[in-house]
């Protein structure tokens, strides 16, 4: 943890705002104090190493990307809202007001350390489309290379229910993968995962999670009572699992212990990596995309896709559901309706009925060479746990 060079830090709304809504300037400044000092200390070490004979330039520099919630919460008080609204339109209005306040507060706070701030707003739709997530990756890399401090948030002002991440914990896990982070730190108002209700005596903090078995039987809490956020421990643990499965270690702790966590101290809950890094677009496809429809497969096609990792051909499709266009994400379901995979489809929904059950060679003879291809190529397909 202490040796991580590129770090994604996520902070929740409850750590930045009051329960009534509105930013708490002291809380923001306290977080920035930690992040800026660690970043500047790393830059100083890198400069010292660069000036030393035979030292590799940049060896000690630490790069940090901040995924910050708080836009909607910051906009509540200015709009006279007592709690986070349930309807999307008022959430978007609060985000529109609050995002400017949030970034302005960060800009002023980081300016105390001579650090520039860059804002990056994302939606799930941005990240599930190849060109868009490549652009996001380039932007974040360039901001870091130019010495700016990237602050990422979901673009709540334009996101609809269909293209929302749902919570910034999951967004942080995906951003960590996108920027090839060495560490993900999830900050909230709770100092780790507990084996029971942390407010009750007799419970203890779970220091390490090496796999799902370490959390078997542990009841994970939902969103807090303040009503300004959307997550809770459930979304944080899920985000930790996503990142760990992609080969990224995760620390889950409270915001007041941020400095200790970033220094490699014994705080919070540490999630060991459980998998290896996969292609960026496949992780986005699995965790950030919203299926626009479904293809129901026969038993042979399910076996080919799941067991033999083959592409989905027209001959293995039994039926089609929903309305979608070529390039959209769709679910692949078995005969019982269970989703077994998700992939990017190569045809519009209206085209598929006449392809069902037929060979690609037959389709090419009748409809042309453009139809001699997979409905979902195996390189654009991820398996789901069923």
Automatic annotation (TrEMBL):
EC number: 2.7.2.11
Residue sites binding ATP per the record: 10, 188-189, 230-236
Pathway(s) annotated for this protein in UniProt: Amino-acid biosynthesis; L-proline biosynthesis; L-glutamate 5-semialdehyde from L-glutamate: step 1/2
Record has Disulfide bond as a keyword: no
Molecular functions per Gene Ontology: glutamate 5-kinase activity
Amino acids binding substrate: 69, 156, 168
Major location category of this protein: cytoplasm
Domain PUA: 293-372
InterPro entries: AceGlu_kinase-like_sf (IPR036393), Asp/Glu/Uridylate_kinase (IPR001048), G5K_ProB (IPR041739), Glu/AcGlu_kinase (IPR001057), Glu_5kinase (IPR011529), Glu_5kinase/COase_Synthase (IPR005715), Glutamate_5-kinase_CS (IPR019797), PUA (IPR002478)
Keywords of this entry: Amino-acid biosynthesis, ATP-binding, Cytoplasm, Kinase, Nucleotide-binding, Proline biosynthesis, Transferase
SMART domains: PUA (SM00359)
Record localization: Cytoplasm
Stored Gene3D superfamilies: Acetylglutamate kinase-like, PUA domain
Record's keyword annotation contains Metal-binding: no
One protein family per Pfam: AA_kinase
Reactions catalysed, as given in the entry: L-glutamate + ATP = L-glutamyl 5-phosphate + ADP
Functional note: Catalyzes the transfer of a phosphate group to glutamate to form L-glutamate 5-phosphate.
HAMAP family, sorted: ProB (MF_00456)
Similarity comment: family membership: Belongs to the glutamate 5-kinase family.
PANTHER family (alphabetical): GLUTAMATE 5-KINASE, ISOPENTENYL PHOSPHATE KINASE
Protein name (database record): Glutamate 5-kinase
Organism this protein belongs to: Streptomyces musisoli
